[in-house]
């Protein structure tokens, strides 16, 4: 089967690259081995997690950082397209790249971020909250939201909150299986008429609160439930991310995949690339577990394989390796130097990843593969958590590489 | 990619609960522990003490959507199926035996098809079946054919010889319920220059036996099939099928659940749509389509087709038909899961699982739904009222046979 570009990995980065290329006339295939890290999405995206202007911080990064390889001007041009794109597929984000705002974490702390979904709790000024009295809605039996932590954290920020436990017969029904009382199973129940009943319970619990804060357990397959609940709750309603699985993240994964498929992309889920044929520094074709001898071929290939969680990177006793094509990786020293024993300190392994040249060509045995690019979490040279740049790197590298591929092929046509 | 292909890789589970999100059953039946708990989590306990086995594992549909979703390659569905086989104290009832033995029931019912079909439609029959056998009275039964596919196949008087041959595993459904699908496939394959053989001995693939706890019988039938398949593969022929579930069972459940080694023939067992697509993709055959064919079709991805990852072949073939407009239905379980939805204790869940799919189909302006699974067909037809056909039958309807034969130099 032949395509213009084959993308290995179907998470945020792979889908952004695929959609961008499809929109510019390419035919793309995405192969995804299981679901992606978007299932851990917080509702916010980080460009660079500093107080103030993320672009200023980005300009000062070392050369090895993916952002430095893209360049500040290119990054600015790419991120200007992000909000409008997500709006097109049904996600409205607040925030801009000139100055970070703060999302409220499930611990009741503040984190500087670039974009936050409009219905998620966030503030622009950490010293000046828009509300001081909050009603925290706690769903009885829900395992992945800890209202008292949140209340304590908010208290330190000057927001007094009252926890209200809420339940419904429909929720009690699924609570029969307590271990599966998870965000998505709750969201599957909270649809249709049940939203009305939930709103009634929430309204009873709000009293004199200025804002209603509840875990993100509404709107798994679409935004209608969110809108409907917002309409029916008297006070302003804000969501706080839960422990995984993430309801908004899954909605985003589905929306991105739908969009990619709608414009003609082919998405293969639950399949793994087993091998690739490399000749003269180019990848000629790949084979997968499900398709046996059928070879998938393309002019260009993008590795959007993710980090350790997605098995885009793996660790053996003495090395970090890339398991699909055995590409070169960047990691440092003996295993004992890979991590810091203090869990919350900076962890060296977070910066490990696939080695690339400045155009994001993957390196194999020191030589750049001319038609293989690396994007997203599998790249080396950045720490998504400590720096606060996971989504930013995923999106900007994906679109930057898509631009490179389009420019390359249009130059090629001119030469012909 | 380096994969974990251990028999029991529950330790790969990192507890991310992504499987739960995509389990069609966990969302509607709180009595089921959910894939993570029933699979890798429960396995930890069961290895310590078999008393931890929970009979609610019987609710699992074996749809494998958990495995497709798992980011860590844990064989969640296999772990659950093997636990059922190893620890379940339940013995299959007469009802389970009847539902599982699709070929024996088929042979009996084909003989008396007109009578059987009429009786099965009677409300009284349905009441009796529910009372005696716990087969839900709201379920409609697939009609039986009054002649078998194999009888038709052997009775064809004149057969030209072909340069290439392929062997068709027709399965119970084509043989006893709907021989036309088999006839369609033979016609299409012949037109592109492929003669068709049948296996020397074909038994039911055994999927329903596995689901109903009749493991020994399933293994025996699997061995018969593998023996016959080996013979044709040795001659250089591939084995094609028109049912995603039979294909999945013979390729994947034989080794992982029944412990039958099929490594030497696994790659030779393929869906007919994949077989034909690959011939076209490599320019070995060509197909000409009728100019007067027009149809709006929605494709439904059966669970086992999703697991095989092969829906792309069926939909790519359909997209080649100029007069066909294809709409994709969101890949989700229809709820029937073979014999599962026929059982009284499962009927409500079965219907609830499919609810969203039926709604989606009804909202689409399509004439037919295409799918590669016969039990999905029954479920969708019963609940949406829209006819459901196999992609091969659509292909047979859209092909210009005379032109196609000429293109492939078939006389």
Could you explain how this protein is built, in words?
The complex is a heterodimer of chains A (416) and B (411). Chain A has 416 residues and is α/β, with parallel strands linked by helices. Chain A folds into 2 domains: 2-90 and 250-415, 3-Layer(bba) Sandwich (FAD/NAD(P)-binding domain), CATH 3.50.50.60; 121-240, Rossmann fold (3-Layer(aba) Sandwich). Chain A contains 13 helices and 22 strands. Chain A has helices at residues 12-23, 54-59, 66-70, 72-79, 82-88, 147-156, 169-174, 183-189, 193-206, 224-232, 247-262, 384-388, 390-415, and strands at residues 2-8, 28-32, 44-45, 93-94, 101-104, 110-113, 115-117, 122-123, 133-139, 160-166, 211-215, 237-240, 266-269, 273-279, 282-288, 297-303, 314-315, 320-321, 329-330, 353-354, 361-364, 367-374. In chain A, the strands form 7 sheets. A 6-stranded mixed beta sheet of chain A has the order 13-2-1-16-22-21. In chain A, helix 4 (72-79) crosses helix 13 (390-415). The longest helix of chain A is centred in the last third of the chain and has 26 residues, at 390-415. In chain B, the strands form 2 sheets. In chain B, strands 2-1-3-4 form a 4-stranded parallel beta sheet, sandwiched between helices. By secondary structure, chain B is an alpha/beta fold. Among the domains of chain B are: 10-87, no CATH class; 295-398, 3-Layer(aba) Sandwich (Rossmann fold), CATH 3.40.50.1860. The radius of gyration of chain B is 21 Å and the shape is globular. At the A-B interface, helix 8 and strand 13 of A face helix 1, helix 3, helix 15 and helix 16 of B.
């Amino acid at each position: 089967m032949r395509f213009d570009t084959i993308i290995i990995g179907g998470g945020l980065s792979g889908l952004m690259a695929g959609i961008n290329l499809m929109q510019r006339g390419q035919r793309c295939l995405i192969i995804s081995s299981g679901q992606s890290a978007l299932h851990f999405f917080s509702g916010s995206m980080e460009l660079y997690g500093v107080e103030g202007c993320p672009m200023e911080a980005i300009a000062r990064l070392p050369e090895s950082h993916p952002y430095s390889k893209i360049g500040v001007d290119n990054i600015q041009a790419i991120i200007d397209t992000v909000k409008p794109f997500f709006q097109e597929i049904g996600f409205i984000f607040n925030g801009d790249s000139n100055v970070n705002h703060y999302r409220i974490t499930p611990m009741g702390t503040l984190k500087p971020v670039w974009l936050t979904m409009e219905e998620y709790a966030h503030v622009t000024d950490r010293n000046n909250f828009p509300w001081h009295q909050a009603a925290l809605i706690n769903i009885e039996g829900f395992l992945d939201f800890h209202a008292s932590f949140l209340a304590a954290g908010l208290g330190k920020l000057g927001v007094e909150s009252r926890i209200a436990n809420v339940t419904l017969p429909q929720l009690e029904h699924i609570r029969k299986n307590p271990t599966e009382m998870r965000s998505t199973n709750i969201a599957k129940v909270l649809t249709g008429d049940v939203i009305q009943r939930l709103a009634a319970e929430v309204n009873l619990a709000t009293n004199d609160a200025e804002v209603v804060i509840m875990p993100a357990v509404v709107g798994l397959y679409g935004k209608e439930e969110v809108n409907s609940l917002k309409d029916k709750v008297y006070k302003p309603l804000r969501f706080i991310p839960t422990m995984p699985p993430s309801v908004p993240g899954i909605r985003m994964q589905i929306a991105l995949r739908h969009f990619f498929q709608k414009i003609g992309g082919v998405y293969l889920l639950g399949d793994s690339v087993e091998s690739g044929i490399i000749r003269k520094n180019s990848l000629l074709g790949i084979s997968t577990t499900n398709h046996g001898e059928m070879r998938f071929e393309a002019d260009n290939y993008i590795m959007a394989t993710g980090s350790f969680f997605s098995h885009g990177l793996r660790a053996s006793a003495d090395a970090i390796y890339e398991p699909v094509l055995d590409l070169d990786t960047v990691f440092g020293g003996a295993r004992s130097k890979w991590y810091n024993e203090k869990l919350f300190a900076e962890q060296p392994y977070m910066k490990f990843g696939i080695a690339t040249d400045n155009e994001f060509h993957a390196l194999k045995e020191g030589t750049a593969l001319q038609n293989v690019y690396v994007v997203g979490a599998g790249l080396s040279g950045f720490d998504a958590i400590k720096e606060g740049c996971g989504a930013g790197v995923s999106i900007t590298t994906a679109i930057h590489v898509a631009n490179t591929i389009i420019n390359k092929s249009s130059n090629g046509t001119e030469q012909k | 990619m380096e994969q974990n292909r251990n028999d029991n890789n529950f330790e790969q589970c990192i507890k991310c609960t992504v499987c739960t999100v995509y389990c069609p059953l966990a969302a509607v039946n709180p009595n089921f522990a959910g894939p993570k708990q029933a699979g890798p989590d429960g396995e930890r306990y069961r290895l310590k003490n078999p008393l931890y086995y929970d009979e609610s594992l019987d609710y699992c549909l074996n749809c494998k959507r958990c495995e497709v979703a798992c980011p860590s390659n844990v064989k969640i569905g296999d772990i659950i199926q093997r636990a059922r086989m190893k620890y379940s104290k339940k013995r299959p009832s007469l009802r389970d035996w009847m539902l599982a033995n699709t070929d024996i029931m088929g042979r009996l019912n084909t003989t008396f098809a007109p009578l059987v079909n009429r009786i099965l439609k009677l409300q009284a029959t349905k009441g009796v079946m529910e009372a005696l056998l716990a087969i839900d009275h709201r379920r409609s039964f697939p009609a039986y054919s009054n002649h078998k596919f194999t009888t038709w196949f052997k009775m064809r008087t004149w057969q030209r010889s072909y340069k290439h041959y392929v062997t068709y595993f027709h399965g119970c459904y084509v043989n006893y319920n709907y021989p036309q699908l088999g006839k369609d496939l033979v016609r299409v394959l012949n037109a592109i220059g492929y003669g068709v053989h049948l296996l020397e001995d074909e038994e039911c693939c055994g999927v329903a036996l596995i689901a109903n706890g009749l493991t020994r019988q399933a293994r025996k039938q699997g061995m018969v099939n593998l023996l016959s398949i080996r013979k044709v593969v040795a001659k250089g022929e591939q084995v094609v099928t028109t049912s995603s579930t039979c294909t999945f069972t013979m390729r994947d459940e034989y080794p992982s659940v029944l412990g039958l080694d099929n490594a030497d023939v696994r790659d030779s067992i393929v869906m007919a749509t994949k077989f034909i697509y690959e011939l076209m993709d490599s320019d070995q055959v060509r197909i000409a389509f009728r100019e007067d064919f027009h149809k709006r079709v929605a494709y439904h991805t059966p669970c086992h087709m999703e697991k095989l990852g092969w829906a792309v072949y069926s939909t790519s073939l359909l997209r080649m038909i100029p007069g066909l407009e294809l709409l994709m239905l969101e890949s989700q379980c229809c709820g029937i899961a073979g014999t599962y939805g026929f059982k009284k204790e499962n009927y409500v869940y079965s219907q609830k699982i499919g609810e969203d799919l039926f709604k989606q189909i009804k909202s689409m302006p399509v004439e037919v739904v295409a799918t590669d699974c016969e039990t999905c067909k029954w479920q969708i037809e019963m609940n949406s009222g829209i006819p459901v056909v196999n992609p091969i039958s659509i292909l047979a309807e859209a092909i210009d046979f005379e032109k196609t034969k000429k293109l492939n130099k078939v006389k």
